[in-house]
Amino acid sequence: MRIVLTGSSGRVGRAIFSALAGKHDVVGIDRSPFSTTHLVADFANETLLRSAFEGADAVIHVAALHAPHVGSIPDEEFRRVNVGGTRLVAEAAIAAGVKRLVFTSTTALYGYAVSPASCTWIDEDTPAQPKSIYYRTKLEAERVLEEMAGPELAVRVLRMSRSFPEPGEVMAAYRLHRGVDVRDVADAHLSALTNGDAQFRRYIVSAATPFTKADCKYLATDAASIITLRAPTLAAEFTRRGWSLPASIDRIYHSARAENELEWHPRFGFDEVLAQMDRSSLEVLPPGSDISRKSE
């Protein structure tokens, strides 16, 4: 397949490029130069897109303004890039005869759906309640694509959970309920290029959780006990390393639909986080690292 990948210089885009390379002909677009990028430009340009999409079989649209940009970039620019740009991508894809568009979204747009002092079980049927302009525009972009999907263009939306580097003890615990390895995200995009005939489908992409929906009743107030029960190996590692288990867990992202319909299975759980940290991988930060909370 010939696949056009927007946002190819970013962290997620690079991972997707790596998953595609060697199997498909990939053309990367990004305004920042990188070895995975062939066209260095703002993707939100109709002329550029129509030329790039000529002869393409599929488009993976990753490029966007993100949470760290909130407050430093005007809301109007978020709408231009995240909403208007996504519409341009879909229009250009249809004009070029592209049959499949895979859109990278985020589980963070559930926002206010997570209730304080409780644990919320979140799947694709949970109503999104975004908090910031970033999350609102990602949801608006999803709606644009849902309206435009049809016989000419099948759309797959992947709502990915946290995959950026964080302190090892935080990242390992999150991998139980609200985190995912960026390589698993890339694999899900690869699977979404060819699955099914439906015109529009939406999927949560998160690491496999050991928790059940019934566990939510206890995770909000006694997460350590439930983690010890459901993930004893992780609990033992936390003890060995002198770390404290989380006292509470406020959400669980459930990706069963993606596993079933995409035939996608996340490969990298908390054990991989610990292994990466032990070999000083840049994918995991040292325990106790102070990070920007704008990535929330």
What does this structure look like?
With 296 residues, the chain is of the alpha/beta class. It has a single domain (2-289), classed as Rossmann fold, CATH 3.40.50.720. 38% of the residues lie in helices and 15% in strands. The chain contains ten helices and nine strands. It has helices spanning 11-20, 46-52, 75-96, 133-148, 168-174, 182-192, 216-230, 232-241, 256-261, 270-278, and strands spanning 2-6, 25-30, 39-40, 58-61, 100-106, 120-122, 154-160, 200-205, 251-253. It has a seven-stranded parallel sheet with strand order 3-2-1-4-5-7-8, sandwiched between helices. A two-stranded parallel ribbon has the order 6-9. Helix 3 links the parallel strand 4 (58-61) and strand 5 (100-106). Helix 7 crosses helix 8.
Lay out the secondary structure:
Blueprint lengths: L1 E5 L4 H10 L4 E6 L8 E2 L5 H7 L5 E4 L13 H22 L3 E7 L13 E3 L10 H16 L5 E7 L7 H7 L7 H11 L7 E6 L10 H15 L1 H10 L9 E3 L2 H6 L8 H9 L18
Helix pairs in contact: 1-6, 3-4, 5-10, 7-8
Question: Which features would summarize this protein structure in a list?
Answer:
296 residues, 10 helices, Rossmann fold, two-stranded parallel sheet, 9 strands
Structural class: alpha/beta
Query: What string, H for helix and E for strand, traces the elements in order?
Result: EHEEHEHEEHEHHEHHEHH
In CATH terms, the superfamily is NAD(P)-binding Rossmann-like Domain
* Order of strands in the sheet with most strands: 3-2-1-4-5-7-8
Highest-level CATH class: Alpha Beta
| Average of per-residue pLDDT values | 95
- What global shape is seen? globular
**What's the number of extended β-strand segments?**
9
Query: Could you estimate the helical fraction of the residues in percent?
Result: 25-40%
Q: Number of domains in the coordinates?
A: 1
| CA-CA gap between termini | 35 Å
Largest sheet: 7 strands, parallel
Low-confidence stretches: none
